[in-house]
Amino acid sequence: MFFKIIKKLKTVPAVRTMTKKLKGSNKLMGTLKKMSKPKKRVSLRSVDEKLDAINFKLDLLMDYYFDPAKARKAFGERAKRQKIMLDMALEFKRICDKYGITYWLDYGSLLGAKRHGGFIPWDEDIDVSMLFSDIKSNADKIESELSPDYKFRLNGDEYAQIFHKSGLYLDIYGYEQNGDRLKMKLFTFLSPEDMRSVPASIILPTSEIEFEGIKFKAPADVDTYLRGRFGDYEVLPKSRNPYSNENIGKRIIFYPDEKL
Fold first, then answer.
1. CB 195, CB 183: distance < 8 Å
2. Neighbouring C-beta atoms of residue 189, cutoff 10 Å
3. What digits encode the pLDDT tens for the residues 35-74?
4. Residue among 214, 175, 182 at smallest CA distance from 97
5. Domain spans, the chain
6. Long-range CB contacts (< 8 A, 24+ apart) of 95-102?
7. What pTM did the predictor assign?
8. Which residues face 183 on adjacent strands?
9. Which of 15, 5, 58 is nearest to 35 (CA)?
10. Residue 102: which residues within 8 A CB-CB, separation 6 or more?
């Protein structure tokens, strides 16, 4: 049945026409063709990887070549994880709103809110940020206010996390302020380019943006901030990893002489 579905899918004219608009569409169609011819021994890992790549491309087709308002949302296990993450973000938001703690959506979550009105369809986490001084000074409040399903953890002098009983967690990134500049303290998967300072005025005071129909705090100038992080963030991405070099366009460099 699986191979029949694949065979049918690759013959749909609309799919074939639209995939030509995506860079690497020949490779995608080739993969579909190969997968329509079953072999005696097929590596499950190989199949999973190919299916993941194809699903990503199909998500892009749905999101960019049909009406974005009708774009297919996540389903199955990913939708369940998104729901848990959204509930966790709402719990965090509730506490911040109660005590007047400043935070903002960041990175992929901010990009998703701006471009999709919520989760990027193939994404399943939520990124939030605060001044690290606010994380540290409000750690006890956050920890004591969380419902029993959640646990709070402060990680050194860089960031914090909220864990759900399912094992999923919300990262709270810490920024430090130096005069009129803000810079993230955490350095993990980010490249030096991602660690560049941004003007404090494009983040603070925060504005609001809708994420899955709910208003969350956001940088003061969302468009400029995203262009500093992702370049032309409205351009179709070429891979699932938003931080890969092929997905990053020409960013706004606010401080060219900054030492990284």
1. yes
2. 8
3. 555 555 656 666 666 666 666 555 555 544 444 445 556 6
4. 214
5. 2-70, 79-247
6. 95/141, 95/142, 95/145, 95/146, 96/217, 98/145, 99/138, 99/141, 101/130, 101/134, 101/138, 101/141, 101/142, 102/130, 102/131, 102/134, 102/204, 102/206, 102/217
7. 0.72
8. 176
9. 5
10. 96, 130, 131, 134, 204, 206, 217
In 3D space, the residue among 225, 228, 8 whose CA is nearest the CA of residue 113 turns out to be 225
Which residue from 237, 236, 255, 256 is spatially nearest to 245, judged by alpha carbons?
237
Locate tokens 């471009």: which residue? 115
For 167-209, write each residue's pLDDT tens digit: 999 999 999 999 999 998 875 556 666 778 999 999 999 999 9
Record the tokens describing residue 155, joined without a space: 């990680």
Choosing among 1.10.287, 2.60.40, 1.20.120, 3.30.460, the CATH entry for 79-247 is 3.30.460
- Give the amino acid at 139: A
pLDDT of the residue at 94: 97
Structure tokens at 66: 């049909």
